[in-house]
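Why does residue order matter? Because the sequence determines the fold. Keep that principle in mind as you read this record.
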Amino acid sequence: MPNKSSHQKTFKQKQAEIQALVSQMDQAVDSYFVDPEKLKQYLSFMSQFHRYSPANVALIEKQFPGAKAVGSFQFWKSKDYTVRKGEHGEKIWVPIQVPAKFQTKTGEWKPIRQATETERVALEQGTLRQIEAHRSYTIGTVFDISQTTCPIEKLPELFPNRHITGEIKNFDLWSHGLRQVAKNLGVTIDETTPYTFGAAKGVFIPKLNKIQLNPRNTSFENATVLTHELAHAALHPQDKRVKTTVREREFQAEMTAYVVHAHFGIDTQNESLHYLASWTKNKTLADKKRLIGEVHETSLSFITTLESELAKGKEEGRNISEKLDQKPMKTLDQWEKGSLTDYLQVGDRVDDALKKHLMHVLPPRVNNEQVMQCGEPYGMKDGKNTFITFAKEDGEWIYKGACFAGEHQQTDTLSKTEGAPVYSLPTRPLKPTGLSKSTSLTRSR
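Structure:
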């Protein structure tokens, strides 16, 4: 039975350990705002350990740089693996729920649920000191997979929700996921209003709660810029902008985009991180923790939604690796001369550049997330005007030929439209009815 002095010594040791951990964490956070390379490394860690708190991410990164996946001693044991002899674990904060307690007349602390009838009366009268239930933290230890007997190739089995880094090639599917993020935020992505923001690749307009993307962007640029602008929407809505500076807002949006992209293996070559750290050099430690904490919370929300949407896409067979061989992709660069009808066949996939070219030549009468129909009739069928039409299927734009107004935009799954006749364009130079020669879609080089 330890005596009072030994108990007091143990308590002091524990307090010292906690204080050392706090100091270590604070020093790590401070260093991220001085050294851009350390900031980048920390954000990369956050992308891997997004379900850990920012404080624990900082502690793991500082104690074991290069960690891939961590678990407690019992976790690894439960998976039939052991921690290698001589390995020292990484200390992290472990949240614990402290029950409501009261102090008895003898000075002992007891859970309120264990109070006697007499003590309950005293508690109601307020004559006994008590504390409410609350969350506290203790110190726990975790070990990286490299410190155990578990082979690295077992990661997907042990951590089924952990994303294995790899290039995302289907940026239409990625964009679909980001649009779900926008929907969750109540943000509109405006692709029809004339763009008046010069060379900027995108902009978030807080008063309107909408995002506009530069129509000159490539698919890759849209896929990455949208993440940045959505970060602004999540972190800096109209009612919160007065509480932050322009530099802080850009710092947080860039960090959020970096974490999300790093998690999914998208290399954006984000050189801005090399100067963003200097933007907050005069901030207090509390401010720095707040900035990083908000980035972590937003990144976690985005990653969770995107993982869900990408998984759905894979289940539905929308993965680009499964789609590339099914339909040809027609591009603007390949269309060298002649009429569009000689170049496109109904069912062809169309790249963004070709679609934007047609939108420029014929400002669309309908242009939304599901369908684009050119603004002037191409011809007539059964006494009705038909329009050059493109519809979104499985995250890609598909040429539908000359269709009636409103086709392909009423169904949830465009690839399953029933009862909607589709007509191929006649084999003649594409000069829609009523158009001048200057707007003809016959192309020459």
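The first strand starts at residue 70 and ends at 71.
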